[in-house]
Specification:
Immunoglobulin-like, five-stranded antiparallel sheet
Length: 173
C-alpha cells in the first residue's frame, strides 16, 4: 500500500510538473538600429553684394545665382534635419573700426534638392529661426540666402564682411 501511494504521488507530481514543461514556449526578437550616415555641409558660395552706393540699400535675393549665399548638405536620403542660421547684424571692415548694417527677412532663404532649384526653389526657409527640413531622396539639400545691406551716407569706404554660420543636425525622425 505504501508503495502504491508513493507511486501515485510520484506520478501525480510528474504529471503536474510535466504539463507545465510541455506548455512552455520561447520566442526571440532582434534589437535593430540603423545608423544614419554622417552629414556633410559645405559653404559653396558667399553672399556677395558687390559695390554699394553711400546711402542706398542694396538687396541680394536668394534666387540670384552667383550672388546669393549657398550651402550644400549631403546626408541620408529623406532624413529630417534642423537648420539653424547664426546671422550677423553688421558687416565690418578688416580693422573692425567701421560697420555697415545687414538684415535678413523671414523669406530671405530657400531650399531645393538640386542646384537648378535656386531660381525656382521648392520652399522658403526663415533664416531668423531654426527650421526643420528633410534631405532630398537623392541625399542632398541646397540652401540659399539673400539679404539687404544698408550703407550710411557717411559710410567709410572699404571692404566689409561678416560670417554667416549654418548649423544642421539630424533630428532622429
Amino acid at each position: 500500500m505504501k508503495f502504491k501511494l508513493l507511486l501515485i504521488a510520484i506520478l501525480a507530481w510528474s504529471f503536474a510538473h510535466g504539463e507545465a514543461a510541455r506548455a512552455q514556449e520561447r520566442a526571440t526578437i532582434q534589437a535593430l538600429a540603423t545608423v544614419v550616415s554622417s552629414l556633410s555641409l559645405i559653404g559653396t558660395n558667399d553672399l556677395q553684394f558687390g559695390t554699394v552706393t553711400l546711402g542706398v540699400s542694396k538687396a541680394v535675393e536668394k534666387i540670384d545665382v552667383g550672388f546669393a549665399g549657398e550651402w550644400t548638405i549631403t546626408g541620408t536620403p529623406s532624413a529630417e534635419l534642423t537648420i539653424d542660421f547664426t546671422l550677423p547684424t553688421v558687416l565690418r571692415t578688416l580693422d573692425t573700426l567701421s560697420t555697415m548694417p545687414i538684415t535678413f527677412r523671414a523669406t530671405d532663404a530657400s531650399y531645393g534638392f538640386a542646384l537648378a532649384n535656386q531660381t525656382t526653389p521648392l520652399g522658403v526657409v526663415n533664416p531668423n529661426g531654426p527650421v526643420v527640413q528633410r534631405i532630398g531622396a537623392g541625399g542632398q539639400l541646397f540652401i540659399w540666402i539673400g539679404g539687404v545691406v544698408w550703407p550710411r551716407i557717411s559710410q567709410t569706404g572699404g571692404d566689409y564682411s561678416a560670417p554667416i554660420l549654418l548649423t544642421v543636425a539630424y533630428t532622429g525622425n
